[in-house]
Structures are given as C-alpha cells and as structure tokens.
Design goal:
The structure is a homodimer. The first copy, chain A, is of the alpha/beta class. Chain A has a single domain (6-13, 61-103, 136-331), classed as Ribokinase (UDP-N-acetylmuramoyl-L-alanine:D-glutamate ligase, 3-Layer(aba) Sandwich), CATH 3.40.1190.20. Chain A has 12 helices and 14 strands. In chain A, the strands form 2 sheets. The first copy, chain A, has a 9-stranded mixed sheet, with helices on both faces. Chain A has a 5-stranded mixed sheet with strand order 3-8-7-2-4. In chain A, α3 (62-73) packs across α10. The longest helix of chain A is centred in the middle third of the chain and has 18 residues, at 192-209. Chains A and B meet through β14 and α11 of A and β14 and α11 of B. β14 (259-263) of chain A pairs antiparallel with β14 (259-263) of chain B, so a sheet runs across the interface.
C-alpha cells in the first residue's frame, strides 16, 4: 500500500474566474442565461469580457476551489487539471501553489489558452457563469497520475468534466484507480445543465463509482426526475454511501444508509456572490469526514465554509477557514 | 470529584409486570382504556388480575427496564426505586441483581405492597397497562443517594414519577444533585396521560433540569400542544441538549442544536408486545451516547434494542443485547 500523503486529490477544470458586477439588464439585453453555467467559445467569452469591468481575476474551477478550501482548513491536497503555459495558466499555478496544494499536471504549450470563467454577479448575488474551457477540456487519461491517486485517501471529481469523451475517460480511469487502491471517490454534480445533458451517464457513474455525492436540491431533483425531495433522497440512498444535498438558506441534508440528517444553514447577513458555495460546502464536509467527525458536524462545517465564501467576491477563502471553523464550532458547543 | 462507577443510575417506579393476553372485548366490556397506562388502586388491580390468566410475571418499571437493557449491553448501572419487602419485592430485587445492577434502596417493611402493572396485550400487540403503584410511590428525597448520583455519568428519570408531591421532590433533588456533580440528566416522558396531567410542571422540569429528553411523537406533540412534528421539534430544540423522539414504524428523530436526524425503524416481522419499546430505545440510545457514538448511531442502536423487546412478551431483553447490537451494526456497515 502506498504511503498516505494527501487527504484529497481534486480533479477538475483548471480555470481562472474573471469576476464582474453587472445589472440584470446586462444579461437580458444579451440574452444571457441567469444563474447557471453556460459554456461558450473563445470568441463569445472575449466579447462578454470586453463589455464588463473585471472586479478581479482569481483562480477558480469547482474541484480546485474545494481543495483550496480544504487546504485552508489544514488538509493536505493535490490537484489534477489542465492549463496552458500562458499568463492565466501561470496565475492558476501560482495561486494553487500558494494555497499549499500539489499541482503537477503538465500544462499545454500549444493549442487553446487557459480556461476562464466570466462570472457576472447581479445585485441579487446570483452568479451567471460563461465559461470558456480552453485548455481545461484537454485533460486526458494520461494526466491521471496513479501515484497521486494511490497516495490520497479520497479522490474528488467535479461534474463539469463531461463534455469531451477523453475527459470522461479520464475521470472513469481516476475512479477505477481510486477503487483499485481502496480509496473513496467523491463526486460533485456541479450544475443543473450537466445533469440535464448527461443524466443517464451521470447516474451510471454515480452507481458504479461514487461513494460520496454532493449536489444541490435542484440538481438532485433533476437527477431523479422528481419534484419531491424525500423521493429523491430515497432514490439516491442505495446508490452511494453518503449523499450531501445543499438547500441554500434551508441548510443541507445528508443521507447515509438509514439516516437522514437535516442541518440548518449558517446565519448570513449579506450574500455578496454565491460563486463557490457548493465547492466550499464540499470542502468543509470532506474535511470533517477526514477528521472522523459525525455527519451532522460535517454538514455544519460545510455550512460554515460555504457561508464564508458567499460573503465576498470569488470562490477562494479570504480568511483562514481553520480558525473560522474552530470558532464557529465552539460557538455551537462542539469540539473544535 | 467522585470516582466514576456507573454509566447510568435509573430512578423510577419499581414494579413487577403481570402480563396477560386478552381480546379487545375484554377491555371494552370493562371500560378499560386501551393503549395507555392507567393508575388503579389495589382493589381494582386485584379485580383485573383475577379475571386474566397471567402469561408471566417479570420485573418491569420504565427506568428499571432501561437500566436492565443498558446492563445487557455491557453498561454499569444502578437503580433507585421503592419496593415492599414482600414476595414481589424480592422478585424485583432478584431480577435486577441478576441483571448486574446495583440496587440499594431500602424496601418498605410496612404499608403498601410492591407495585405491579397488569399489562393486557391485545392481538394487535398494543399494551394497556393498569398499574397499582403501591410501595413505588413512597420513594422520597431520603432515597436519593448523593453518592450514587455523584458516581454515575448520567441520571435517568422516568416521567411516571409525578403523582406524589414527595416523589416529585425526590426527582428534583436527583436532578439538582446530578448537576451539582456536573453530571447529565436524562428524562423520559413515559406516557401521554402524564403529559396531559402535568404539562406545565413537566415543561418546567425539562427546561430547568433535563439535558437529554426521550418521548414518543404523540407525547412530544401533546407537550407542545401542536399536531405538527416539525413545530414540536423546533419548540423542544432550545430546551434540551438532545431530544430523541420515537415514531413507531417510522423510526425516530433526534434533535440536537441545528441538526434533526431522522433514522429509519428496524425491520420487524412480528410485533408481539410493545411493552418497553420506549424504555429499551432509551437504553440503546444512552448506551451509544456513553460510548461516544454519533447521534444517528445512537438512534440506530435504540431502534435495534427496542425491536428486540417488542418481538416477545415482557420488557426485559431475552437475548444478549450486546451481541445483537454488534451483529446488526456490522450488517449496517457500522463499527460494532
């Protein structure tokens, strides 16, 4: 058995988020889909980018945000994802390295540029993402490093990795390697549009490979084509060991065997930008799980870390999550 | 600080259960209340007793059943309760000693006989109890042994102890002593008729003294005068640290701070006699809690021990609960 080096290795799109505040009319005038993630080509991304004043550029990507959150909590993490060796690619590498995360995936030196997500935040704090995947979608089986997978207690995969057959093969390979080394696979559904486009495929992957599933309520309902939460929870129950379902201001619910654990949301005064809420919930939850905490406490930690991320722009934490979580757990009368 | 000797000390009515199977007409002809506990005088108890063929006589009493269940799980327990030094009193002492439970309360040598509960079980497995408390209601403050309370991690009190002012003073003293020694108080609501008769008093005791509350759904709804479970759960939440609410075939729900944990019921083929289901749920739950298990696992263990008790007559386990619980937890993929 390999020596355990990492708590989690994340696999996902290596993206840089370009954040900009816009009014609702900006979206409606351009017929842009509000509240979801829309994949765009380089040209369209460039056009949207040209029309906004970027608030800031920060490294993003769903699974990358999750491992960055876990690293801020004190976990040891690695990341697998594809950038181009260009300016944004170097920004991504610098950020993830500064977060203390091992990132060894060979960057592209030709072909598409580093992927970017133009994140338009309307005054209601809803984020509408227009993502040019670029280099990110060129992740292939060759990038799935068996040594890293075998050295991590858990492999965390984001659901955005579905569009290229080669990417899909890469994540199936990652799952198979994780199981070969008796490690767990966590999977985040990521986005309702992914579910709608890939429902059957996604359900197969979940059934065959996923031990721990993350989804929000809307995604879970869509996955099982129902509008009743309890029905969806009962459907997902036999497929995975743990399913953690986020429910915005209603908190989250965790399904594990015969248990359904409802946990209230963190109180939040002002939601600034909901980008990364799901990613950071997963970070807090998996951190708790790695530390052997109860599922209720895992969901509580996820709620704390998600709450931090949505009170500012960007999906990378602005305070030490470790300190924040300790403080909040003590306030809840829990062991920090 | 006193040396810790006991996991739990139970305080309750020391009763012997006289079990008999009857048809529904037996109850209706005699105008006997079905499904609950009715207090009767010595004469009426004798009259019901004379009309039935006792299946068997076994030691009972709600808190006594709970500590007997915990002892069968391997916990160290003591019991405080009042018998008369008569034949049934000696039966009670023999049974509780054989279960490995310390029982030092001085028996009455004059006055009322040892309490007994005529438990009539109808073919639908519902138990209707007609209880002559006798000596049991003569428990007073003098019987609350500070040394035993100080030596137990937790004091468990049954809700049946309400009818005599002296009994009520005794349980308040037990609560105060437990808190004085920084120990927890667990309280079981026991019976809907107790709630109806003593709602305000019971709510005060819960607010002031109880850390861990056991109730079934009907009792909880009655306690907060509502017919909505979620409302009742939100009402009980700020009053106690943990509330565990049993829901028959729908399992149980545990409220703890911001968490509500719903756990499915154990599958049961044939319910023979529901006597002691709540008592044994509390036994399994508290055993898990004492062992530092998650609240979901505590509720699971409670479900397992409750399920054992209702598949046979009587409220004392017929198998080693320790072995049963280990086996079932492993089947659920949990650490035994």
């Amino acid at each position: 058995m390999a020596e355990m080096v990492y708590d989690v290795v994340g696999i996902g799109n290596a993206l840089v988020d370009v954040l900009a505040k816009v009014g609702d009319t900006f979206l409606s005038e351009r017929n842009l889909d509000k509240g979801n993630m829309t994949l765009v080509e380089a040209a369209e991304a460039g056009k949207i980018y040209a029309d906004v004043i970027p608030e800031r550029q920060v490294s993003g990507g769903s699974a990358a945000n999750t491992v960055a959150g876990m690293a801020s909590l004190g976990a040891d993490c690695a990341f697998i994802g594809k950038v181009h060796d260009d300016e944004l690619g170097q920004l991504f590498q610098r950020d993830i390295g500064a977060a203390g995360i091992d990132f060894f995936t060979t960057p592209l030196t030709e072909g598409p540029a580093t992927g970017r997500s133009v994140v338009l935040v309307t005054p209601d704090a809803v984020r509408s993402m227009f993502t040019y995947l670029g280099a990110a979608r060129h992740l292939t089986e060759a990038d799935i490093d068996e040594k890293i997978i075998s050295e991590a207690k858990m492999t965390f995969i984001e659901g955005y990795l579905w569009d290229e057959p080669a990417e899909h093969q890469a994540i199936v390979k990652a799952c198979e390697l994780a199981h070969k080394h008796e490690k767990e696979v966590a999977f985040s559904v990521s986005d309702i549009s992914c579910v709608i486009k890939h429902r059957e495929n996604m359900l197969s992957l979940i059934k065959e490979h996923v031990n721990i599933l993350f989804a929000n309520e809307e995604e879970l309902l869509s996955l099982f084509a129902t509008d009743d939460l309890n029905t969806a929870l009962n459907e997902v129950k036999p497929l995975v060991n743990i399913a953690a379902v986020t429910r915005d201001s209603r908190g989250s619910v965790v399904v594990h065997g015969r248990e359904k654990i409802f946990v209230e949301a963190e109180p939040i005064e002002n939601v600034v930008d909901s980008t990364g809420a799901g990613d950071l919930y997963a970070a807090g939850f998996l951190y708790g799980l790695n530390r052997g905490r109860s599922l209720g406490t895992c969901a509580t930690i996820g709620g704390i870390t998600a709450a931090e991320i949505i009170t500012h722009y960007g999906a990378r934490p602005e305070v030490s999550l470790r300190g924040l979580v300790r403080h909040r757990l003590m306030e809840y009368g829990k062991r920090p």
